Amino acid sequence: MLRGLYGAAAGMIAQQQRQEMLTNNLANANTPGYKADQASLRAFPNMLIKAMDTQGPKGASAPIIGELATGVYLQERMPNFRQGDINETGNSTDIALLQGVLPEGESGRPGALFYTIQSNDEILYSRNGNFTIDGAGFLTTTEGQYVLGTNGESLQVGDENFTLDPNGTITSSDGAVIGQINVAYAEDPMLLVKEGDGLLRYTEEGELPTAIGNAEINYQLQQGFIERSNVDASQTMTEMMNAYRSFEANQRILQAYDQSLDKAVNEVGRLG
């Protein structure tokens, strides 16, 4: 009976974690460049049950009664790097990164492209192209981190009257070429983890290689557009309701076991 308690409790914990993940996705449905987290429920390995103090025919080992499920858990959360919808804003500092069909890496998953962002002394990555210009004229994220160019330096665009071609080359209002926005390529995007504020950190040593000059990678930058979140709000709401109902079902099972234990302790024990 206690094992049933453990299984129901494991199901409740897994559904609570799933609900928290879906709630976070829904809260970021309007965050530019946000990539929805995804995960699935997996079962712990089943256990074989054998009869105790019992031998099979001619001294054989105890007979196997059957399998016992040991509960479920929420598999590791992973971002879905599918391209989000593109929305026109008309703001010169909004830049959408449109990636074409990218080659598959050794993991069998297609790669992904990112902006290179300098946050303090750390190099991070982002798909959020909702940029702005700081007081010194540098192109930055809305949180103040510098957007880096191909030479690894920050880009001083001066004011909002700059222009950007599809390759990411920036030209100032007086016609001077300022630099080119770097686009980094992740062969296996699952090696990136979320750091908050739309930023991701590469978990391996070094930095992601640039996609510029790679003939196998097709992309373009669109000025005056923004990539929206790839969260499907209606689907997420449906999954949240399913998670809630599953949580309630496990909760009722847990209550039934609790009532059975209460009877066993307070009624059956008194009859004895």
Notes on the protein architecture:
It holds the Pfam family LlgE_F_G_D1. Residues 5-35 form the Flagellar basal body rod protein N-terminal domain. Residues 114-149 form the Flagellar hook protein FlgE/F/G-like D1 domain. It is found in: Bacterial flagellum basal body. Keywords: Bacterial flagellum, Cell projection, Cilium, Flagellum. The chain starts with a helix and ends with a helix. With 272 residues, it is of the alpha+beta class. The protein has 2 domains: 2-29 and 41-74 and 232-271, no CATH class; 79-227, no CATH class. A hairpin with a 5-residue loop joins strand 15 and strand 16. The model has no long low-confidence stretch (mean pLDDT 87). It has helices spanning 2-27, 233-271, and strands spanning 37-38, 41-43, 47-50, 64-68, 72-74, 78-79, 86-88, 95-99, 112-119, 122-126, 131-133, 139-141, 146-147, 163-164, 169-171, 177-180, 183-186, 192-196, 199-202, 219-223, 225-227. The longest helix is centred in the C-terminal third of the chain and has 39 residues, at 233-271. The strands form 8 sheets. Strands 9, 10, 13, 17, 18 and 19 form a 6-stranded antiparallel beta sheet that branches. The chain has a 3-stranded antiparallel beta sheet with strand order 14-15-16, with no helix packed on it. The protein is 24% helix and 29% strand.
